[in-house]
Fold this protein.
Amino acid sequence: MGVMGFASASVFSSKLAAFLVLGLVLNLGLVCNGGKTSTFVRKVEKTVDMPLESDVFKAPHGYNAPEQVHITQGDQLGKAVIVSWVTVDEPGSSKVLYWSANSKKKTAVGKFYTYKYYNYSSPYIHHATVRNLEYNTKYYYEVGIGHTKRQFWFVTPPAVGPDVPYTFGLIGDLGQSFDSNKTLTHYELNPQKGQTVLFVGDLSYADNYPNHDNHRWDSWGRFVERSVAYQPWIWTAGNHELDFAPEIGETKPFKPYTHRYHVPYKASGSTSPLWYSIKRASSHIIVLSSYSAYGKYTPQYKWLEEELPKVNRNETPWLIVLVHSPWYNSYNYHYMEGETMRVMFEAWFVKYKVDVVFAGHVHAYERSERVSNIAYNVINGICSPVKDQSAPVYITIGDGGNLEGLATNMTEPQPAYSAYREASFGHATFDIKNRTHAYYSWHRNQDGYAVQADSMWFFNRYYHPVDDSTSAQS
Ligand SMILES: [Fe+2]
């Protein structure tokens, strides 16, 4: 009995030791790779676009009723709003009527535009800028004056300042599939209540239809109105905004996008709506274009070179960059497509201590460590990303739910620069608390509205530049 007891005890203890060693090895593997690949298993269903007769695409009733209403920031400081809408029957009025609880009704007069794309003629696209608004104020506005009036509202941001709390939503690559609708609904119902959406490009995916059927630009405008008529979305151009189709005679890139979505680029000294900046609350937001020239001497390069020194961290502590094509991406989709832009601009981002770069394009989710890869000079062989506390965190949030489906195929093993990755649809929020702290969280569509699948406390790179990686915090 005694001998047997001893034997089984020793088998047990050697099994335990093996288990512990295995656990240690697995753990080491995780540490070496630096990141986490989520084990979440989502239901794999085909992603399809919602049919045109869906409720979400319904045009409003009434003669020449304004549709596809959307707003964005209209100046550098958040005291102006660009109101845009579309009329179908005739041009109608380009006036916006607006008022707050303690101001009388005022009028802003805009202009309307049309464009042709192959065999498509656009409806009348109106843009009017409402200026000199009070900060932190709810305004009501009306469009469709003279025909069918429709009323909406928005809240202006607080005055720009270093400790102004503000919550941004993050959505990318949205499209108009059933999954897109889930993403938007999740964003709307998120208890963290985003006040402005930072949109990282690829809006309608109309270009996936024969001859880039621009009716899908119209349906997308009607789909997102329920959010973007009430809070500004800050636009970034993606590859699906190019609509470059020489085979059908369409050789002017970005034609539908730039007619439909106006941005306040001149206010930041930009010469193109494809790159610009705004200040909002405690953040300075720089929007770049992956699909415009950015080499040395180009307009975008020169603009960014002059823009970065202008960022005043005493006024706007948080420096955020939006760009479509990610620089750090460990999926096997669009791998290295952002590389040439990284080579041009990454050293500046480190020098000016950008807090975070949000990108889309890859239809999945990924968050990087703070890394940089700027030492390489062709001959020195120093060509691997290194941990760098002056570098931004790179977040790919191209998982809005478009019809092209998810990117699921990942580089294995997970590279050290990748902190967390998961092939699910979703959105994120970036919740600035003060000049030192911001709370970031990512929400996958399959979960309840309040669930955070990934999160991180951001420490501001200018005011609190200590290690804020999730491994350092846990
Ligand atoms: Fe894209």
About this structure: The helical segments are 2-33, 178-189, 215-228, 255-260, 299-307, 339-351, 470-473. The mean pLDDT is 92. The domain at 163-201+274-473 is CATH 3.60.21.10 (Purple Acid Phosphatase; chain A, domain 2).
